Amino acid sequence: MRAMKPWAALFDWDGVIVDSSRPHEKSWERLAAEEHRALPPDHFKRSFGMKNEQIIPELLGWTRDPQEVRRLSLRKEALYREIIREEGIAPLPGVRPWLEALRAAAVPCAIASSTHRENIVCTLGVIGFEKYFTVIVSSEDVRHGKPDPEVFLLAAQKMNIPPPRCVVFEDAHVGIEAARRAGMKVVGVATTHPSDTLVGADRIVHRLDELTVAELARWFDGAE
Fold first, then answer.
1. What is the DSSP-derived secondary structure letter of residue 186?
2. Are the C-beta atoms of residues 77 and 116 closer than 8 Å to each other?
3. pTM above 0.85, yes or no
4. HEC secondary structure over 148-176
5. Which of 36, 44, 58, 169 sits in a 20 to 30 Å window from 207, CA-based?
């Protein structure tokens, strides 16, 4: 019986591994208090999908000076990490057993996300997940955001696994589209968005531990 070639698991971060929405909202509140500035109603919901460099001048209207925007953006992310260290954060239900199952099967895992690297590394340390991931690709590593496939292709390259032998775990349609464009399999995780919005996923789950390693391994029988 021939040995099966390796395959890899690539994880989006927020909404797949953790839900960091509340700490991020708190970090904006702390920043506003520090800077003696006001936050518009519903600013956080309206900021979904936007970078700090857009949020500060366009949504909050605080400043358009590039240096000041950068200072505020960096401070906001530092406050996020302070909150995580102070209050902790938990992985989403089912994540730890799924990562343990992949580790036991020697399936290499990567994080491929538009999140800041320092935030990912800090949170991995807080929840004790460093051992599960051999590669991290973050916002600092890519020029193009999803649905461009760059983040996933770079992760596969760093793992030395061909894209057709990778499966991506994503909670948003834009990420599913990016994975598809990378030529990868996709599991949609219905944590942030309803199942019917995760169009294009090969499988949809509410918790990652609904899956088995054997089920996903069958996807790669014969894949090059």
1. E
2. yes
3. yes
4. CCHHHHHHHHHHCCCHHHEEEEECCHHHH
5. 44
- Report phi then psi at 166, rounded to 5: -120, 145
183: tokens are 């030529």
Domain ranges for the chain: 8-18+91-219, 21-87
The residue among 196 and 152 whose pLDDT is bigger is 152
| The two structure tokens encoding residue 215 | 């089920």
Residue range 195-211, pLDDT digits in tens: 888 999 999 999 999 99
The correct CATH number of 8-18+91-219 out of 3.40.50.1000, 2.60.120.560, 1.10.10.10, 1.10.150.170 is 3.40.50.1000
Supply the DSSP symbol for 36.
T
Angstrom distance (rounded) from CA 161 to CA 127: 27
Contacts of range 34-38, beta carbons closer than 8 Å, 24 or more positions apart: 34/75, 35/62, 35/72, 37/62
Q: Please provide the average confidence, as pLDDT, over all residues in the chain.
A: 93
Separation between Cα atoms, residue 166 and residue 71, nearest integer Å: 37
pLDDT digits (tens, 9 = 90+) for 5-37: 799 999 999 999 999 999 999 999 999 999 999
User: Which residues lie across from 167 on neighbouring strands?
Assistant: 9, 185
User: Mind listing the pLDDT tens digit for each residue in 114-128?
Assistant: 889 999 999 999 999
* 66-89 CB burial, b ≥16 within 10 A, e <16: eeebeebbebbbbbbbebbeeeeb
Q: What one-letter code names the amino acid at 154?
A: L
